[in-house]
Amino acid sequence: MPSANPTPASAASVTVHLLRHGQVHNPDRIVYGRLPEFHLSELGHKMAEEAAAALAQRREHGARLVYLASSPLTRTLETAAPVASALDLEVHPDERLIEPRNHFEGLHVDRGQLSKMSHWPHMINPFRPSWGEPYRQQVARMADVVVDAGRRAVEIGGDGAEAVLVSHQLPIWMARRSAEGKFLPHDPRARECNLASLTSLVFDDVNAGLRPRVVYSEPAAHLYPGVNQLPGL
């Protein structure tokens, strides 16, 4: 996922960690999208703490984690909070990290809901997709924020510095598929972007406009048993 407008500069290696938020309290299992006041569950807070601990351990082993940004939604800010504490960093809210807009926001989507004719115009093209923000737009904004964060990390911590961006499953998955040169349309059930996971983008040179390597990890995996891992929930 190269930057849309790479600028000439000296070579600078950097790692940008994309952290998905923890489990959300959502007993009605609605598509919460960009709705306000959807908080992490008690387990979700534990997941965020596990991710923070993993990043703090990385710092103990010499990593220079110097920049932290987050989607401005409640669940991502709550996930960023223990990271900020563990790394002694300020959280920078960034709209480019936000959840994609979705026609089904606020609804519990089941067969009955999908059978309503009012929804049909929004389901015409699953490859765009027609029910929400186009995949290409998600990739574009994520590419911008990743490269900006990487460059900011290098400004602060020098060559080899690292940044953490707290976001949501779909934009993180889009960033990964772009980085790996894969088609953006996909089966949501196949996403490898679990709760409080880290999708780390490793740039040999963040200024070169080249695709990064991808490293994936799940610091909170031991908390997953019994947790709903359906896309978006």
What does this entry look like structurally?
With 233 residues, the chain is α/β, with parallel strands linked by helices. The protein has one domain (14-223): Rossmann fold (3-Layer(aba) Sandwich). It has helices at 42-60, 74-87, 111-114, 135-157, 169-179, and strands at residues 14-20, 65-70, 91-93, 162-167, 198-203, 213-217. Strands 3-2-4-1-5-6 form a 6-stranded mixed β-sheet, with helices on both faces. β2, α2 and β3 form a beta-alpha-beta unit. α1 packs parallel to α2 (74-87) and α4 packs across α5. The longest helix is centred in the middle third of the chain and has 23 residues, at 135-157. It starts with 13 loop residues before the first strand and ends in a 16-residue tail after the last strand. The model has no long low-confidence stretch (mean pLDDT 91).
Write the SSE topology:
Blueprint (H helix, E strand, L loop, with lengths): L13 E7 L21 H19 L4 E6 L3 H14 L3 E3 L17 H4 L20 H23 L4 E6 L1 H11 L18 E6 L9 E5 L16
Parallel strand pairs: 1-4, 2-3, 2-4
Antiparallel strand pairs: 1-5, 5-6
